[in-house]
Amino acid sequence: MYDHIPVLLEESVSYLVTNPDGVYVDATFGLGGHSKKILEKLSDKGLLVAIDRDKEAIDIGKEKFKGCDNIKIVHSLFSRLDEVLTSLGIDKIDGILFDLGVSSLQLDKEDRGFSYNSDSFLDMRMDRTSKLTAFDVINKYSEKDLERIIREYGEERYAKKIAKEIVKRRQQKPIVSTKELNDLINSVVPRPKDGSNPAKRTFQAIRIEVNGELDEIKTALEKSLRFLKSGGRICVISFHSLEDRIVKEFFKYHSLECVCPKDIPVCVCGKKKELNIITKKPITPTKEEIEKNKRSHSAKLRVAEKI
Ligand SMILES: C[S@@+](CC[C@H](N)C(=O)[O-])C[C@H]1O[C@@H](n2cnc3c(N)ncnc32)[C@H](O)[C@@H]1O
Which top-level group of life is the source organism from (predicted)? Predict the structure, then answer.
């Protein structure tokens, strides 16, 4: 059985739930760690809508929460929040939580192809009913696109070298496994001083591309805002700078009264302030949490409240 230790659990759920009778969304249900805690805070009148794009996680979750009436578990993308809520007859929510990235179920299960420590098919789909796999990206994308993805999504300075090597190798035979990709990267990129695997950044980049992760976040944040009640909160736990930047900029933009250029004497943009930022600085895990759960080390929680 796969277990996932929920990150920043107390902190995120305390910020999220302000009304025990309210309607909440766990946009990244995973193995239900945060959902369980949210349900503990809700009364019999409260409702939790839990979404995940991973059918395997949904099936495990449905079994885990069998008999619990105030949770609806839905297999969908969080960018389809509007469709999910409308289909349940919900037009307003009291709060939404995003715990981004992959779950331990995805990372630790060899055949999901997320881990550079395993030897499995290059899959990396969070939703195994979707089409594009890491194999397709690695074997079919142009050298230029590979370089761009690895540089932008992996923040990898050796992107050019890695892309070139991928294209060279795949001309001999397709690159099929996580091990082949890991070995290839290790053959052209020096090992960082901290001893970490140089393949880490490229694996992150390919995963982001396969799952369209950054566009998913942007769309879902916009849609969340439309459904939040006044006083309702958006809580986001991110795990790397690309995710965190999107959240930070989204909160900042929607917390501004006006976005007119500074030299215009009267406001013409018509923008309204929609959010109050609750966490001026992101909340990060304690030393104790990081010791217990290494995966939490890069986590950042940001919270904003609808006006
Ligand atoms: C870090 S895990 C969440 C773990 C969960 N909070 C727990 O305590 O068990 C992230 C989950 O979000 C899901 N996910 C990521 N992107 C998604 C998206 N765009 N739409 C729906 N689910 C998504 C993944 O499939 C994964 O199960």
Answer: Bacteria
Contacts of 252 (CB under 8 A, 6+ apart): 277
Distance of CA 58 to the CA centre of its chain: 16
Instruction: List the structure tokens of 94.
Output: 């009291």
Which tens digits make up the pLDDT trace of 162-216?
999 999 999 999 999 999 999 999 999 999 888 899 999 999 999 999 999 999 9
Closest-CA residue, ligand 1 atom 20, reads: 77
Residues having CB within 6 Å of any atom of ligand 1: 4, 6, 28, 30-34, 51-54, 57, 77-79, 99, 101-103, 126, 216
Question: What is Dmax (Cα atoms) for the chain?
Answer: 64
Classified by CATH at the fold level, domain 110-211 comes out as DNA polymerase; domain 1 (1.10.150)
N residues, the chain: 307
CATH 1.10.10.10 fits 9-99+213-306, yes or no: no
| 272: its two tokens | 């309204």
Spans of all domains in the chain: 9-99+213-306, 110-211
Strand duo 47-52 + 228-238: pairing:
unpaired
Is residue 133 a contact partner of residue 122, using CB atoms and an 8 Å limit? yes
Q: Which residue's CA lies nearest to atom 24 of ligand 1?
A: 102
pLDDT exceeds 80 at position 2: no
Tell me whether residue 22 is annotated as binding: no
Cα atoms found within 13 Å of the Cα of residue 101, Cβ hemisphere only:
23
How far does the centroid of ligand 1 lie from the alpha carbon of residue 158, in Å? 29
H or E, element range at 95: strand 93-99
CA of 77 to the centre of ligand 1 (A): 9
